[in-house]
Amino acid sequence: MYLSLCFISFFLLMFTSLLSFMFSMYCIMNDLVYFVEWEVISLNSSMIVMTLLLDWMSLLFMSFVMLISSLVILYSEDYMMGDISLNRFIFLVLMFVLSMIFLIVSPNLISILLGWDGLGLISYCLVIYYQNVKSYNAGMLTALSNRVGDVALLMAIAWMLNFGSWNYIFYMHCMMNDYDLCLISFLVVLAGMTKSAQIPFSAWLPAAMAAPTPVSALVHSSTLVTAGVYLLIRFNKAFPNWLLNFLLVISVLTMFMSGLGANFEYDLKKIIALSTLSQLGLMMSILSLGFADLAFFHLLTHALFKALLFMCAGMVIHNVKNFQDIRFMGNMSIFMPLTSACFMVSNFALCGMPFLAGFYSKDMILEIISLSNLNMFMYFLYFFSTGLTVCYSFRLFYYVLWGDFNLIPMFKLSEESWMMIIGMLGLMLFAVLGGSMLNWMIFSTPYFICLPLLMKMMPILVSFLGLWLGSILFKYSINYYFNLFKYYGVIIFSGSMWFMPLIFTKGVSKMPLKFGMNSMKFIDLGWSEYFGAQNLYFVLMKLSGINQWFQVNDLKSYLIVFLIMLILIMFII
After folding, report:
1. 280/104 Cα distance (integer angstroms)
2. Over the Cα atoms of the chain, what is R_g?
3. Residue 53: helix, strand or coil by DSSP?
4. Are 195 and 228 in contact (CB under 8 A)?
5. What's the rounded Cα separation, in Å, for the pair 340 and 396?
6. What is residue 486's predicted lDDT score, i.e. its pLDDT?
């Protein structure tokens, strides 16, 4: 039953992915957009209409989501083999993909909210899948961080009532400088920032690594975290300049912060999660400069190599008995050559190695940045963050592939699970060829970028500088020459994502929780008990005791009362 469900899901998703890709090609070649309206119900003069937007962008992204999810489901057949509820896991993944597809094809804020909330709810179920305290905490942090964006989207829906329809694509051009559209744009940007984990909502992204690795491969490549970027790409024509400048600052700082944090992290999955955060910052920043097509191009190429990177990490974790600390790993290039090859390809694509998937988008983005009218601080942060990407990639190479194996003296590492291998090899093919293919498809006329030689060479130069910095850093840290205590504050600050998990989890929740505890202690269980339920209980107990005493001693009581009344009458007279 498990096998059949996995394989049915794999073939179904692969077939629909191929179909969607061909339809997307047809739309690109003929410059077509299909706007489908389906009247669900009509009651008197009120109609509920379901709208779908099928253009080259939505169809292409949909095909990539289904391609990656089909290979992830095939991969998870072996990865989740010991799980007794694999069926439930596959159904959750399928519902997750369905929510994402629903979001992709919606030109309407109401139907976007359905897909958006579907992603949030199912991601919570997947993060807490392993059912331990760490997973529950991570799931709650994920859900509550995303609720901020959900509320912003609900407020945008409420404000769009001023326009008479929730189909936002009708109002992008004609209401360009309208106050209402500016406010809606700000709320949409806030929603996109929470879903794509930009500062200050970055804490949930590494915490969501508590989910199973196949889910991480899906979430961090093409579904949950890219939903915010995709929504902003769709809305990009409605953003005023001040909002784009605000988004640029936030996204570049996110890129820098996550690149710095990944160099001090030791959890393999968290390093890759921080790498995802860095790439999301890159997409958001180029989008805020007005290049939505470039942001979409990097979104697709990043999905290919990041899913592969998570699959390779899952294979390694699976073999080292579920340890995720990179200090326990090492020498995987000897023990697991095929996985190491896939790992190297995906990491090189992430660094922007020429002619791999990441090169075409990252190199073009960096050259556009050099051509843009940016200040020196932003320009420095862009290229320094690119150097940090190479730096933490080299660190991963050293610890996972080249260093000494530090787990146990007797071990067995194998690559016998052919379904995991097929999933990885399928994505490796796309990580090598996908960039050039998408470049030819998306850009009908190539970008003409004319720069001085030094600025043209800047991406490759900062990559080599990052490599050099990484080798120096790890050489000194490994040989214990690095004076740890001297730089301890810097390391703690950089490695803890600028204290963001502390500030925006404990910092936000400590006071309300403490107030709630005190109110329960002193009001609910204190004075309200004394003056309310408990006191009432004691009074009724006392009265019922007196009543019972009368009932048990009725004759004696009657005579005593009679005597008292007689004495009173005598005194009165």
Report:
1. 18
2. 30
3. strand
4. yes
5. 11
6. 56
> Residue 35 in 3-state DSSP?
strand
Q: Give the pLDDT of residue 2.
A: 44
Amino acid at 56: W
Closest by CA position to 198, among listed 144, 134, 140, 279: 279
Task: Please report how the helices 86-104 and 56-79 are oriented relative to each other, as an axis angle in degrees rounded to 10.
Answer: 170
Task: Using DSSP bridges, classify how beta strands 46-54 and 34-43 pair: parallel, antiparallel or unpaired.
Answer: antiparallel
Tokens 């009908």 map to which residue?
A: 444
Domain locations in the chain as residue ranges:
245-484, 534-573
* C-alpha dihedral sign at 415, 420, 421, 425: negative
CA distances from 270 to 73, 211, 312 (A): 22, 12, 14
**442 vs 558: which has the higher pLDDT:** 442
Average pLDDT, the chain: 84
Separation of alpha carbons 253 and 248, rounded Å? 9
Amino acid, res. 277 = L
User: For residue 277, what are the contacts with CB-CB under 8 A and spacing of at least 6?
Assistant: 197, 202, 205, 206, 254, 255, 258
d(CA 151, CA 98): 22
The stretch 17-41 carries a mean pLDDT of 89
> What average pLDDT does the segment 536-564 reach?
79
Cross-strand partners of 37: 51
| H or E element in which residue 51 lies | strand 46-54
The model's pTM is 0.85
Question: 350 and 305 in contact (C-beta within 8 Å)?
Answer: yes
Instruction: Give strand ranges (E) for 264-358.
Output: none
